[in-house]
Amino acid sequence: MTGLIGAGVAVPATRVAPAEIHRVWANVPEQVVRRFGVIHRAVPEPDTDTITLAAEAGRAALGTSTVDAIFLGTQTNPYATRSAAVIVADMLGLPPHVFATDLQCADKSGTAALLSAIAWVSAGLGETALAIGADTLALHAAPGDPLEYTAGAGAAAFVVGAEDGAAAFVRMASAATDTPDRYRLDGERHLRTTGSAMTATGVGLEHHVGLAFERLGVAEEIEHLAVSQPDAATPRRIAKTVGAPPSTTDAGLVADRIGDAGSASVLLSLVRVLEKAVKGERIVVLSYGAGASSDALLFRATGKPLMSEVDFMLDNAITIDYPTAVRYERRYAGHERLIGTYE
Amino acid sequence: MWAPSDPIARLNTASGARGWRSRHGRYRLVGTVCLSCDAVHFPSRRVCPSCRSRDLAEKALSRTGKVVCAAEDRTPLAGHAGRPVSPFAIITLDDGPSVLAELVEVEAVTPGLRVEMVIRKWRRESNGLYQYGYKFREAR
């Protein structure tokens, strides 16, 4: 059996409240911001990026063990061509004969990495593999874009092995069509959306998540849903789409404290579910990546604890105001060197 | 791809090869242990400063340590403008050697504080590469 034998998470401790951002921009009615259900969103400090978050989560997942392969799913690699997974492999001290690669599929990159790791181990190509999802979406939300209220950052990592671990993998299904609802163009910093015609009608999220879930074919009742969370209201929207009770998403809720962690959000959600799940419970993981695609994975919990400190990471907040977040996220284009800096 | 995190500074930094050579030390605190007098060094040495032996072995040092003293720097170096004022400290690792490093996610620092290593971005070099390395935060 293939299963999840270790997990680690990393979330920036600095957080900003969407209400603070709304005080400056006031570009949508206040109740719209409140409806996101996001109390704080993560703000990556200037010395934090996708690679450092991935390395921290990977280190926490590995402990002192090692793996044969590393798959890193991200849509915010600081480099255009250099593999972030390769850099993270060296940061984790993995031996140089490790197989390392990046995966990019918008917010679905995290489950793409997890599925690759599961396939790697199931195929017998290696004994263990590390799957990481990491993103810093906050750096890619345009100032004044409503996305800025929720775009956060984070990373989550799983060690996949040829044993049941904390959760045994049962089966998967997927869905993908050409649906351009949110995207970032080459050379551009900020994400664009095609507007509410694409994002509010359900042709993206609800359609793809529904397709993948239907294909997964879970007839019996499921106890937990771990889903992609662009905001804290989306999990219940997904539960409604797939016909599951809304309470199944409660254990996996993470967006209320960190906002949208991109490809990491569904994995963070799964880590949190596994900390609470008891033996025999069925967990369905549903990711959604804009563009658009969705993965559905079915796991069966074994009740083994993962010791991931996920709740500590989510709660460990240093609250900052919006001007400070603007400075940290470099939202002003400035000189290459400011007056008052030494060389 | 547009990299949002750091502008490329105009000042010259050492070549990418220098960063490549030092990466094990920066990423994993790899130092050296003298096989003849057991002295532990960080950063790595080629010759033991205590006994002049060239018989050294690489070793990843402990990721935890203790703050000896700390200070704040309010005049940022080029490429670091806009960053929060963060304290830096001399930290004695559990294996013995001391390192000078920045502290992150801390508010008040007192000597004796237990800290653990995290990887963060140090700076962006003039060739555009990001240089990552050790920083420390309060131990958990």
Describe this structure in words.
The complex is a heterodimer of chains A (343) and B (140). Helix content of chain A is 31%, strand content 24%. The longest helix of chain A has 14 residues, at 109-122. Chain A has 343 residues and is α/β, with parallel strands linked by helices. The model of chain A has no long low-confidence stretch (mean pLDDT 94). The radius of gyration of chain A is 19 Å and the shape is globular. Chain A starts with a strand and ends in a 15-residue tail after the last helix. Chain A has a five-stranded mixed sheet, with helices on both faces. In chain A, strands 8-13-12-11 form a four-stranded mixed sheet, with helices on both faces. In chain A, strands 3-2-14 form a three-stranded mixed sheet. Chain B is mainly beta and 140 residues long. Chain B contains two helices and eight strands, in the order ααββββββββ. Chain B has helices spanning 16-21, 23-28, and strands at residues 30-34, 40-41, 56-60, 64-72, 87-93, 98-102, 114-124, 130-138. Chain B has a five-stranded antiparallel sheet. In chain B, a hairpin with a 5-residue loop joins strand 7 and strand 8 (130-138). Chain B is globular, with a radius of gyration of 16 Å. Chain A binds chain B through residues 13, 45-49, 51-52, 55-56, 59, 77-80, 87, 90-91, 93, 139-140, 186-189, 309, 312, 318, 324, 327-330, 334, 336-338, 340-343, and chain B through 1-11, 23-24, 27-28, 60, 75-84, 102, 104-105, 107, 118-122, 130, 132, 135, 140.
How would you summarize this macromolecular structure in one to three sentences?
Chain A has helices at 18-25, 30-35, 50-62, 84-91, 109-122, 196-199, 205-216, 234-242, 255-258, 263-276, 310-315, 322-328; strands at residues 3-10, 14-16, 41-42, 69-73, 99-103, 128-135, 154-161, 167-179, 182-183, 192-193, 224-227, 282-289, 291-301, 318-319. Chain A is α/β, with parallel strands linked by helices.
